[in-house]
Write a structure and sequence with these properties.
The complex is a heterodimer of chains A (114) and B (111). Chain A starts with a strand and ends with a strand. Chain A has 114 residues and is mainly beta. In chain A, the strands form two sheets. In chain A, strands 2, 4, 5, 6, 9, 10 and 11 form a seven-stranded mixed sheet that branches. Chain A has a four-stranded antiparallel sheet with strand order 1-3-8-7, with no helix packed on it. In chain B, the strands form two sheets. In chain B, strands 2, 4, 5, 9, 10 and 11 form a six-stranded mixed sheet that branches. Chain B is built from no helices and eleven strands. Classes of the chains: A mainly beta (114), B mainly beta (111). Chains A and B meet through strand 4, strand 5, strand 9 and strand 10 of A and strand 4, strand 5, strand 9 and strand 10 of B.
Chain lengths: 114, 111
């Protein structure tokens, strides 16, 4: 299993541009999450999904959108990029079958908005 | 609102020392607690998960304990090695399974 994969690894955007960060997991996990990590800080939840077709906001959702059309994929859309969105973005997933909901993380996407 | 604090923010120790990293949280109504390791420029690796009904978990030289009533967890690393140098993150989840993270402890183990 590849686990959680994210693309791209790095990206530089100009202010006002848009982009989609891709996230795919091959563990058949129901739950998926998007976090951002600013320098020297912990991670903050942007959006999460408990299954295909179901998404909900996390702590810092402004400026982002998500969709979940399949169990495997959970893309994060940035509209009208702003310098405040410069960060490292992590996707994660967790299973419900074990009852533990342990989260597994992808390698991250480093985004710079200039 | 749940808040997670990790002390110290940074720690430097000589190789071979046993060390303790601390994590505290403000709301004891947690579902589980996870400890992660993060290497510079890399993603997060799950080290240990403690469910709310458990008191501790062990993996190799790592031992994590949980005291829900006092809102504390500790990560004990035995016989530290330079390869243990990384940032260690603590995170708690509530019944909705979302994780709330601390800011991490940056550990440097000197040869």
């Amino acid at each position: 299993n590849a686990g959680v994969t994210q693309t791209p690894k790095f990206r530089i955007l100009k202010i006002g541009q848009s982009m989609t960060l891709q996230c795919t997991q091959d563990m058949n996990h129901n739950y998926m999450y998007w976090y951002r990590q600013d320098p020297g800080m912990g991670l903050k939840l942007i959006y999460y999904s408990v299954g295909a077709g179901i998404t909900d906001k996390g702590e810092v959702p402004n400026g982002y959108n998500v969709s979940r059309s399949t169990t495997e994929d959970f893309p994060l859309r940035l509209e009208l990029a702003a310098p405040s969105q410069t960060s490292v973005y992590f996707c994660a997933s967790s299973a419900t079958s074990t009852g533990a909901y342990e989260q597994y993380f992808g390698p991250g996407t480093r985004l710079t908005v200039t | 609102k749940q808040e997670v604090t990790q002390i110290p923010a940074a720690l430097s120790v000589p190789e071979g020392e046993n060390l303790v990293l601390n994590c505290s949280f403000t709301d004891s109504a947690i579902y589980n607690l996870q400890w992660f390791r993060q290497d510079p420029g890399k993603g997060l690796t799950s080290l240990l998960l403690i469910q709310s009904s458990q008191r501790e978990q062990t993996s190799g030289r790592l031992n994590a304990s949980l005291d829900k009533s006092s809102g504390r967890s500790t990560l004990y690393i035995a016989a530290s090695q330079p390869g243990d140098s990384a940032t260690y993150l603590c995170a708690v989840s509530d019944s909705s399974y979302k994780l709330i993270f601390g800011s991490g402890t940056r550990l440097l183990v000197r040869p």
